[in-house]
Amino acid sequence: MHVRPLAPRTTRPVDRLHGTLEAEGALENAIAAAFRAHGSSNRALCMSLEAPLAPAERLLTLTGHGHRILWSPTAEHEHSGVGAADLLIATGESRFARIRDAARRAFEDLALIALDGDAAPDPQLFGGFSFQPARAASVLWRGFDDAQFVLPRIAYTRRAGRAWLTLTATTQDLSGAVGRSRLAREAAQALQALRGKVSGASPAHGALQRIDAAEGAWSALVSGIRREIASGHLEKAIAAQCTVVRGAGLPSAALVLERLRTQAPDCARFALAVGDRTFLGASPERMVKRSGARLWTEAVAGSIPSDDPTDGRSLLFSKKDGLEHAIVAREIRAALGPLCETLGAFGPELHRLPHLTHLRTRFEGVLKEPLHVLDLVERLHPTPAVGGAPRAAALDWIAAHEHVDRGLYAGPFGGFDRAGNGEFIVAIRSGLLAAGEAHLFAGAGIIDGSNVESERRETRWKLRGLLAALGVD
Q: CA-to-CA distance for 382 and 388, rounded, in angstroms?
């Protein structure tokens, strides 16, 4: 794990500047003033300025940065970032605790400075965890690790009708005029990108090739899980498959995310890019949100296409879907109930999306003590919605028999701040864009009575939004 010490927090503005900092020279002067005021010790300065209201994915059009992130739990609450002022990496079974502890050390020494106006909301670390740790790294997921969280060098935050650009660099980097000039230039380019438009290849008709998983492999996977259920070893397991889209006409990651804003308006959009590889998607499933002593989570399981003639109501009376959903809700309550003073459940209800309708039960609780959001993530992951039940047996079976390298697919993805408040989703409805290919992942919950073909159809329904964002009919 790589952790760089940062410095004590302050919110005192360097100077109240008139007008918006736009010109590179004005930015460089403000950064120099921040360095003079706070650069006496070896610390990292986190400097914010007012920014235009814009779709967060526009920042991802900037090139020359090894890391890029987007985290948008709602359309009005968005973060994006490029570059890495700090990078936390962890592997193995203890990855949640190691990221939590490394983040605490990183945050406690961070100096937060307002270059103009009010300081931005507290900085956050963004990233995700792989579905299972300590698996052999594949070529497909090279560079993503078991857990990776980024404090962006250039970060954009938009919430409650306001927006900020935040620049983070070490005092060593800012001690010379060259370093200050470079950061000012990058900030000016970021402001320009936020005022521009997202571009990228837009596939022409017939320019993309879609390759679905072999039907025989899917049939064998589902049938194998059904045998384990019949023998009493499993109650439920998730079968996943991968669809590949390739061609020179693949759109850029920023353009896919822009389209998902329309294709999946009620979902949380997310992306993590390492080099030329971008994991992205739009998930309908919140894993957990924590704010102080309060938490929110949900069980999402059971699906029907949105063009169902009963408008989804038949889902409420489906014995198969009801059982699948009940298993997930039961395990969430078992995981979080002992940690809570109260844990209320609301549902099941219909969760309507453009292409699918799900069963959803929402939970809201009050913690006995203010645990870090990563402690809650560790307790919940993986829920039976993406793993199975019993958990250990399902994970062992998936690892031994599933031919899909899940990587970050179906893992926790989100962001958190210095107080341990944050939000994570389950990274489903997602794919990896790399080298002219998009690997798209989808899964279906297999229980007693599941049908091979109906579960395969379900995975196709789940890919509709992402395929449309790629330009595939």
A: 8
